[in-house]
Every structure is written in C-alpha cells, then in structure tokens.
C-alpha cells in the first residue's frame, strides 16, 4: 500500500509540523507502509508497542525499505539485505554503514501522525 500526502502548504513540509500518514488500522502488527509527505519518501511501521517512521530509502543502494522484510524491531533491505533498527533508524548490518533518519509519531483521531 502507498499513500501520498502533501504538506499543509500544498508542497514541501513545514518544520515542526505533524502530518497524517495513514489510519491506525491500515497496518497490522509487523506491517510497513510507504508514504510520501511533501516529496519525502517515508516508511511507517507498526510494531507490537506502537508506530514508527523512518526514511524509506536504504542508505546503501537507494531501495525502498517498505519493500523489505520486517522481523521483530528490524527491517531488512530487499536489495542487499542490510538491516536497520525500526525504532531508531540505526544501521545494524553490512553493507549498510549509515542509519536512516527516524521521525516522531503520535496517534491523533485514529490517524498515525508523523512529526517532520
């Protein structure tokens, strides 16, 4: 599943703003969803303890983490199998050396909101 959300100004994101990414029921536990907010590709994850968001682009070869394999609190890139911590974005295994950016999330009126 994929969603595209424009920033409140019709393009780009506003610093410090919160943006709706998806409904809380759009993801099962262990699920991941690709969303674009203001032109930025993000992956939204649902773990047993809540929702998390990271950049969706692997720092090794620019593939989508949302197309990868989620196991526990890690996501494995589908291209070269590097792993990232979903909660922090930290790179956990080769060939990935740099982590991905993580974003704050909160639930508001049944929607997963991402702080930009």
Query: Quick one: CATH superfamily?
Result: Rieske [2Fe-2S] iron-sulphur domain
CATH architecture: 3-layer Sandwich
Strand order across the biggest sheet?
1-3-4-5-9
Q: Biggest sheet, open or closed, and with what strands and sense? A: 5 strands, mixed
What form results from the Cα inertia axes? globular
CA gyration radius, whole angstroms: 13 Å
Terminal Cα span: 21 Å
Count, helices: 0
Oligomer state of the chains in this structure: single chain
Explain this structure to me?
This protein is an all-beta fold and 116 residues long. It has a single domain, classed as Rieske Iron-sulfur Protein (3-layer Sandwich). Helix content is 0%, strand content 43%. The protein is built from no helices and eleven strands. It has strands at residues 2-5, 18-23, 32-37, 40-47, 50-55, 69-71, 74-76, 83-85, 102-103, 105-108, 111-115. Strands 1-3-4-5-9 form a five-stranded mixed β-sheet, with no helix packed on it. Strands 2-11-10 form a three-stranded antiparallel β-sheet, with no helix packed on it. The protein is globular and about 40 Å long. It starts with a strand and ends with a strand.
